[in-house]
Write a structure and sequence with these properties.
19% of the residues lie in helices and 36% in strands. By secondary structure, the chain is of the alpha+beta class. It starts with a strand and ends with a helix. The chain is flat, with a radius of gyration of 20 Å. It contains five helices and 13 strands. The longest helix has 22 residues, at 88-109. The strands form three sheets. Strands 1, 2, 3, 4, 5, 6, 7 and 8 form an eight-stranded mixed β-sheet that branches. A three-stranded antiparallel β-sheet has the order 11-12-13, covered by helices on one side. A two-stranded antiparallel sheet has the order 9-10.
Length: 272
Amino acid sequence: MKKIASTGAFSMLLFFFSCKKNDALRNSPEVSQSSIKIDSLVVEDSTQLFKTVKLNYKSSLRLFPELEGKKVLDSIYFKYKGNKDFSKNGLEKALQTEKNNYYAKLKDLYKDDENYLNNNESWMQDFGMKVKSNQNNYMYIQYRSESFWGGAHSNYVYTDKVFDLQNDKKVELSDITSMPSDEIEKLLKEKSKTISKGNDGNNKPLMVFDELYDTKNKLLLNNFYFDDKNLYFHYSQEEVAPYVIGDIVIPISWEELKGKLNPEFQKRMKIN
């Protein structure tokens, strides 16, 4: 059964990034309200993937009819490599191709194990993207993928990207700061000593630093976003710490980057 949905008309949506305790995805300070003209596209489907396994599939996109920059659009829809048609029809075709390739991938992956799969099991794949903020022509989009192929729990992967609509590009860390990556990593690890997530079952908070897989390992710095107070680095479940910790957001204040901020970025974000 297949379902494709999209909004019938463009609308002005209001985004508000609020603060909520113990919620890593909303653990940053409030930012200014902002509006952006968007459209939506959703593909939903369910299929009997194997004799004993049903798969529920969903993929949703935000569309930006007023954006004309090819570079930024190519970066926003990075999943669809080679696709140059960013119209609603073009992206719908890309979604359908992605869905069919996903089905084929799973069937090939489990072709020798089909007889060992649990009876009457429901698997799922859910991909979505949300515009979290649009401030000073910097648009922050968060991509989220949730999948379940059996086992104890589903898996989540977050990808955070900021796009410079003024200059038609994806924002790189070097656009923000000249601080060397090893210094940023050191700072993130120090700050992780002050962040707690959940508890150990005896109401004792789990400190993020203590739960890192290996404190000597390098931390990836490609998943970040920012607002008028901080630069945030976001790590998905099990990326740097056990599943029980969940996803992790570590903020670095602009004050901590003082003297190493890109002057153009600092002026545009009105950072004193």
